[in-house]
Specification:
Blueprint (H helix, E strand, L loop, with lengths): L10 H22 L5 H21 L2 H18 L7 H22 L9 H13 L9 H8 L6 H10 L5 E8 L6 H13 L3 E6 L2 H5 L6 E7 L4 H8 L5 E10 L5 H10 L2 H6 L2 H8 L7 H31 L4 H28 E3 L1 H4 L2 H12 L2 E7 L4 E3 H22 L3 H6 L5 E11 L2 E8 L6 H10 L5 H4 L4 H5 L23 H10 L3 E7 L3 E9 L4 E9 L2 E6 L3 E8 L4 E3 L2 E6 L2 E7 H5 L11 E9 L2 E7 L1 E9 L4 H4 L5 E6 L5 E5 L1 H9 L1
Parallel strand pairs: 6-8, 13-22, 17-19
Antiparallel strand pairs: 1-3, 1-4, 2-3, 5-7, 8-9, 9-11, 10-11, 12-13, 12-20, 14-18, 15-16, 16-17, 18-19, 21-22
Length: about 675
């Protein structure tokens, strides 16, 4: 019957579904050890069953083989024939890892290539140990369904109800007797139905089709807006079909008057249920959009924001020059409207790009479990605030820094069970991963209840590394000592392990966080634990900034780093250790001239008696940036300079102002770290 249907068109759909179902499998299997509830087992079983069906339909035999054996084990667990143990969970997780590798091979175009026979035998061995044959759970259901060749009465009734909304179609297929992949053909037919339509029923049932526990005939009942002629053309592309029929099963039989009369006679509960199909349709109105398209849209909106600012500035100039002109007044109204619409568009696009941070957090339970087993430690990970949302551009970058911190918390922070008992603690160490919104930022905390940082050891390591003299080290505060862990090459590990202790990691963490325009801070209490706090912007595309002038140039200071702005007399400036400082509310704050940092402008410009100071902060550190004047607060679009100029010290990017000129965005965090050194 026509040419073979190209299955490659369903590959993206399969890969997307596999990604989602594998994540469910891993997350729920990890929780299975401590909470083996029937609901959890059912969720894992459904995920494995879905993967098995879709992989069979696509012809991925290795993928289907692994999921089939996993499904058998899960079915035995549901029946109480097997008990959940750590060893059994390890085998299931190895199965999930294998499926992940097969998925990667499929995505790369190599098919589900991989050696899985040993794993399949291992899975079968778990099942045989429970006294159940691999096929025992399938045969009874299959034989029962084979005899069901006609519509059940309740299905007929449901189809009649469905026909009150729109016509119901029926497609009847007969496959050739020696069809090699019966469910693959059924899957193709179902995919055509669900592409714009709604499958209402199938005979045999979907699970029977998946198991290929039917002869050669199957029927599909469905809604579809496409004409019968076009549907026939699409169905005719399915190969190994000896014949098929497509015809209306029920026309739309209920008029508005009949529907109104029925609603008035029905029980109130039934009347409420009449809204269910409509609600279901509304819930399904979602589309998958490629990430690159969202990035392109964000770039376009960024350009629109720049032009909005430019138009607003031009409008202000024209209003001042031709204040009595009616056209100028109309222009002013239009500019205001464009500004509002652009702001709304920007806000909606930002929401479309937002993802829950649990997309990152979901990686960590497995990592923590495996690491704890490897190190002989008992660790419990608690995740709080996984629903907190932030821009996908930030999500893509924060995964590695969080992994570094978690690994260090488990390796260095938490004691082994004997050490914890000796310290009067529970054998199981606790690591908390907490996310929350704060102002226009997201705050992430990684807490552990371990032994805390050894400040004396850190101080000695810093002296040995030449980061500080022994004499100066005696005057350091605990906070200053703690900050040495972020210095390159400094490690307090007694031995180099597979996990950490090579003197790399925390300096990279800080570097990556600062590149995001974020902050990282650490607090530790010996014997109680350590808290790492990350403060990150919600997006990397558009920020609020304070525009300042320095020697004729305009610079942007990210508003998140600005503590306050001051205007002081030059007479208030004092000199301490050859550094200019000013006392602000009893606190001595060092001053740094922005024009000297970047060495710009004409040195002959006269110095004034009044100084404009912008106090910026990094954690507890404060520095006053001396500028020539304040321009105002604006929303700016960040443009990267690295592609054109490489990494520029003290500059994190650039933006285009309303007058069309370029302003550089100051890397405040980088400047403050330079000052600290």
């Amino acid at each position: 019957m026509g040419a073979e249907l190209d299955m490659s068109q369903y590959l993206d759909l399969f890969l997307q579904e596999a990604e989602e179902q594998l994540e469910i499998l891993e997350q729920e299997t990890l929780r299975l050890e401590t909470d083996p509830t029937p609901e959890r087992l059912s969720a894992i079983f459904r995920a494995a069953h879905t993967l098995k069906g879709s992989s069979r339909a696509m012809g991925f035999s290795n993928f289907a083989g692994v999921t089939h054996e996993m499904e058998n084990i899960l079915d035995a667990l549901r029946a109480g024939q097997l008990q959940t143990t750590t060893d059994l969970a390890n085998v299931l997780l190895r199965g999930i890892d294998a499926l992940g590798s097969l998925k990667a091979s499929i995505a790369s175009g190599d098919g589900d290539v991989g050696e899985v026979q040993d794993l399949i035998k291992e899975l079968q061995a778990c099942l045989s140990g429970g006294g159940q044959s691999p096929t025992a759970t399938v045969a009874p259901a299959a034989s029962k369904e084979r005899a069901r060749l006609e519509l059940a009465p309740e299905t007929v009734e449901n189809l009649k109800i469905a026909a009150t909304d729109k016509a119901v179609l029926c497609a009847r297929f007969s496959l050739i007797q020696d069809c090699a992949m019966k469910f693959a053909r059924a899957f193709m037919a179902i995919s055509i139905v669900t592409d714009g339509g709604e499958l209402l029923a199938s005979i045999p049932a979907p699970e029977v089709l998946e198991e290929e526990a039917f002869d050669v005939d199957f029927d599909l009942y469905f809604h579809h807006p496409t004409s019968i002629e076009d549907l026939k053309k699409r169905f005719s592309q399915i190969s190994e079909v000896s014949k098929f029929e497509l015809e209306p099963y029920l026309a739309k039989v209920v008029t508005q008057e009949v529907a109104t009369e029925k609603a008035s006679n029905d029980h109130p509960v039934q009347a409420d249920n009449s809204a269910t199909p409509k609600k279901k349709m509304e819930a399904s109105q979602t589309v998958r959009v490629e990430v690159t398209r969202l990035d392109q849209l964000m770039n376009l909106v960024g350009e629109l924001v720049i032009d909005r600012t430019r138009i607003a500035e031009l409008g202000s100039i024209l209003s001042a020059k031709y204040d009595s002109d009616a056209n100028v007044e109309a222009l002013s109204e239009t500019v205001t409207h464009i500004s509002r619409i652009t702001a709304d568009l920007q806000d909606q696009l930002m929401k479309a790009r937002m993802l829950p941070i649990e997309t990152v957090f979901n990686r960590f339970p497995r990592m923590v479990r495996d690491l704890a087993q490897k190190m002989g430690k008992d660790v419990r990970l608690e995740v709080i605030g996984g629903e907190t949302e932030l821009d996908r551009s930030v999500i893509e970058v924060i995964g590695d820094p969080l992994i570094h911190i978690l690994r260090n918390s488990i390796d260095h922070g938490l004691e082994d069970p004997k050490g914890r008992e000796k310290a009067g603690k529970s054998k199981t160490g606790l690591v908390e991963l907490i996310a929350r919104h704060q102002d226009n930022h997201i705050v992430i905390e990684i807490r552990d209840d371990g032994k805390g940082l050894d400040l004396d050891r850190i101080k000695q390591k810093a002296i040995d590394a030449g980061l500080v003299t022994a004499e100066a080290a005696t005057r350091l505060t605990p906070k200053e000592v703690t900050n040495f862990i972020f210095e390159s090459g400094l490690s307090t590990a007694a031995t180099v392990s597979e996990v950490s202790g090579r003197g790399v990691g925390m300096d990279i963490v800080r570097s990556n966080i600062l590149k995001l325009g974020g902050l990282i801070d650490v607090e530790t209490t010996p014997g109680v634990g350590t808290v790492f706090t990350l403060r990150l912007p919600l997006t990397l595309a558009i920020i609020r900034g304070l525009l300042v002038r320095a020697k004729g140039m305009v610079y942007v200071l990210p508003l998140g780093s600005v503590v306050e702005t001051l205007r002081i007399d030059r007479s208030e400036v004092q000199t301490v250790r050859q550094r200019e400082v000013v006392v602000i509310r009893g606190t001595t704050t060092p001053l740094v001239h922005l024009k000297k940092i970047f060495d710009v402008g004409d040195e002959n410009i006269e110095e004034t008696d009044t100084l404009y100071v912008v106090v910026v902060g990094l954690a507890e550190q404060r520095v006053g940036l001396v500028v020539d004047g304040l321009v105002g607060e604006h929303e700016v679009v960040i443009k990267s300079l690295s592609r054109h100029c490489g990494e520029v010290s003290g500059i994190s990017g650039a933006t285009i102002l309303g007058n069309g000129k370029v302003a550089l965005i100051v890397d405040v965090n980088g400047l403050l770290i330079g000052e600290r050194k």
